[in-house]
Amino acid sequence: MDWNIEGNTIKGSLLVPLMPNDAFTIALPLQEGYFSEAEKISNNLIIYGWLLSIASFGTGMLLWLFMGRKKQVFPTVEFYPPQGLTSADVGFLYDGRVDYFDITSLIIYWADKGYLSITEEIVKRRFGTKKSFTLTKLRDIPDDSQTYEKEMFEGLFLMGDGVKVRTEQLEKRFYTVGDNAKKQVKSSFENNEETRIFSKTNILCRGLLLLAGVISTLSLSYMVMKESGNVGEAELLGKSIIMSVIIMTAVYSLMHILKNWKGINKGERIKQLIFALLFCGVICGIYIYSLSLSGNILTGVLSIISVAILGILSNSCSRRTKLGMWYEGKLTGFREFLKTVESDRIKLLVDENPGYFYNVLPFAMVLGVTDKWAKNFDSIMKEPPSWYYSTSMQGRFSAFRFATDLNNDMKIFSFDIASRHVSSDGSIGGGSSGGGSGGGGGRSW
After folding, report:
1. Cβ contact 133:382 at 8 Å
2. Which DSSP category does 129 fall into?
3. Residues in the chain with pLDDT < 50?
4. pLDDT digits (tens, 9 = 90+) for 54-108
5. List of E strands, 79-208
6. How far apart are CA 91 and CA 225, in angstroms?
7. CA 363: distance to chain centroid?
8. Where does residue 259 rank: exposed (0-12), middle (13-18), buried (19+ CB within 10 A)?
């Protein structure tokens, strides 16, 4: 090569082409004081990165406080749920989600109202035994019932002979009816401005929080992309935005799964969590490692923490309308009453309404307090309900055992009917929906 020095510039050119694996090194002694007037290079990207992350995080917190945070409600003591609500309605109104456990609780709700009866059987299987139930239609539900009630009630018996249906006949078939019922429970409230439960600002707040998470890592993503190669400014900015969006998506997905853990189908929980952990770990690992090469690992870690918090807040946008707060106050008070009610009060309620235990049972199930509530009735309720037939109930009747067993049976039943049909080519007819978990305490929508 040929080279020369002109002032502060070193110039050179190759005289022969470089072949694969060839290399050259330039070692040039410079006179003392050569760099004396060199200016210190300030890393503006790091400074802007800190400021942008702090500003985005602070803005996101303010957005959540004023737009997304649920306002405090004041529960009132209630002995019954609000009039006119089904158990599926109560499941949605209490926690804002609908799952198959809410839907299957309608079977108990309808049975108590005299629309159907339930017959329990013990079926022998290759490995042990399993409970099977036969539902028998006693009369049609009223015309003024909710649309989803009528469609689900009719759909149940159409999968049998029109009058009777076994639970085995519903497995891997009923999910289409169930999915539609779940959607209709929510839409029956949310599609009408007068009956909306959740504020429309939740959607806007959720989107703005996700945007804040993207912006909080944008300058640092720009730094990572700039170090990866020489590209134009437009392409560099585009790649930086894509990287920040992927980081926010990965973190948000993991936060979503953790927040809604109880509402996810038990068969899908671990799969979804492992995938989210791997996806999030790889993306965030690459991001932090790339920043560590320039000595900015702390900045990268703090920005990921900021994104994680914004992801949690985005998943927590659940501000209610005035009507939604009214329902929440009533149902929270009702649930607390069911958890802490004393036997003297129960005796008074049963004296006023002998069917109180079975009237309230489906609501206790979706509110997740079946066991705590039912134990108070062992000394009061002496007979099983007229709509339930079983050869396994021998000897002294226990209201607690009956209620908790029925609660667990409905969980299993809700899981079975949520299962999808597997076609001959191995594909599944539809995605997985949340099964009943935690006695109605956890749901998915």
Report:
1. no
2. E
3. 41, 422-445
4. 888 899 999 999 888 888 888 988 999 999 999 999 999 998 888 888 999 999 9
5. 116-124, 129-137, 164-166
6. 47
7. 22
8. middle
